[in-house]
Structure to design on (381 residues):
């Protein structure tokens, strides 16, 4: 009986005049945009995976990413990217606290947590800038490692495979690895960058009292979804490039 | 519970153009951020933060010492993928509040993602196949 009632009500809620999902248009569209963006990132990561499966050797992340700012030649694999990961997770936490403050119409709370989120985003971008610059100084960029005359000594230290295999396939693998690395972390970094811009816009609107006037802080929630998605993508980028 | 708080079975009479009343139907209109309900949610956020941090530390430790300690690389990779999905689920469910939305909306968002199952298997298999062709023939 209760089942029948629920069904009737469900049909009714789709007959117009109600919001069956109880979600506003803008928030639903943000979810659908993120869904499409997930497929874009997914396509990038899967094509990276395809190339990796296609390659006889592949650079060992512990040997490519082992530097830390101001530590010179110290061998510190994964340390710097762990720091970047923690920065992004924490900025996601401060974002969800801003959304929470918004749910309670707490303007001061929104301002405080949005500020921390923006600081986290900028810190992450700064880390990425350092990492890219560092790799670039080691000769890595889009389209690098193509010259067949490249000395084995300039890329063999990226691998932990048999030397003969590296000599035969290592150059191509290094080339592919860096193309995907800069494309995917660049695409992600651009999302972080635009996310920071959106966050600044939301912060200014909050400071100016725009959302208080409107009676709700839904814009914080919508931009928050985007920001969490950026963190979500990084979880996968981190696994694919630095761990696997 | 405030008068504005509504659950799944409440029928909201809404008309086109009045989007503000739709705002976060399931989550909005709590009044006091110092309330016990609010504090409970904040402590949940910090609990999830702790889980994400611990899982990341486990991942990094596995990356640094997993194979060195004699674990086969394939097994380490399985752990990486499981932990990644574990983290992703927490971010989507708690931080993005998808777990707090209506079930029908949650399903609408998640079902298209099942395409990834085909997407990943097909393309990785293709890469592996070409490697085999290149090395054997």
């Amino acid at each position: 009986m209760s089942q029948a009632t629920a069904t009737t009500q469900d049909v009714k809620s789709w007959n117009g005049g109600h919001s069956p999902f109880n979600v506003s248009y803008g928030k639903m569209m943000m979810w659908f945009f993120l869904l499409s963006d997930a497929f874009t990132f997914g396509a990038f990561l899967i094509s990276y995976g395809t190339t990796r499966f296609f390659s006889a050797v592949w650079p060992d992340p512990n040997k490519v990413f082992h530097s830390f700012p101001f530590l010179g030649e110290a061998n510190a694999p994964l340390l710097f990217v762990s720091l970047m990961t923690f920065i992004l997770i924490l900025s996601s936490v401060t974002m969800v606290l801003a959304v929470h403050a918004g749910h309670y119409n707490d303007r001061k709370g929104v301002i405080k947590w949005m500020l921390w989120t923006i600081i986290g985003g900028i810190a992450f971008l700064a880390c990425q800038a350092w990492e890219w610059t560092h790799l670039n100084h080691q000769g890595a960029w889009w389209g690098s490692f193509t010259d067949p005359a490249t000395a084995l000594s300039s890329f063999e230290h990226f691998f932990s495979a048999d030397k003969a295999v590296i000599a035969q396939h290592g150059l191509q693998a290094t080339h592919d690895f860096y193309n995907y690395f800069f494309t995917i972390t660049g695409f992600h970094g651009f999302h972080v960058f635009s996310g920071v811009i959106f966050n600044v816009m939301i912060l200014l609107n909050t400071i100016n009292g725009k959302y208080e006037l409107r009676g709700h802080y839904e814009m914080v929630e919508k931009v928050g979804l985007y920001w969490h998605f950026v963190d979500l993508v990084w979880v996968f980028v981190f696994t694919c490039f630095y761990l696997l | 519970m405030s008068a504005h708080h509504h659950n799944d079975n409440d029928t909201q009479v809404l008309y086109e153009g009045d989007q503000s009343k739709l705002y976060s139907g399931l989550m909005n209109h709590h009044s006091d951020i110092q309330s016990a309900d609010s504090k409970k949610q904040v402590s949940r956020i910090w609990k999830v933060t702790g889980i994400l941090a611990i899982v990341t530390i486990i991942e990094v430790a596995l990356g640094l010492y997993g194979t060195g300690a004699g674990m086969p690389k394939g097994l380490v990779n399985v752990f990486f993928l499981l932990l990644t999905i574990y983290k992703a689920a927490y971010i989507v469910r708690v931080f993005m509040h998808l777990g707090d939305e209506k079930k029908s909306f949650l399903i609408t968002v998640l079902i298209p993602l099942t395409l990834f199952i085909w997407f990943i298997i097909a393309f990785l298999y293709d890469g592996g196949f070409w490697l085999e062709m290149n090395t054997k023939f």
Remarks:
- Chain A touches chain B through 72 residues (CB under 8 Å).
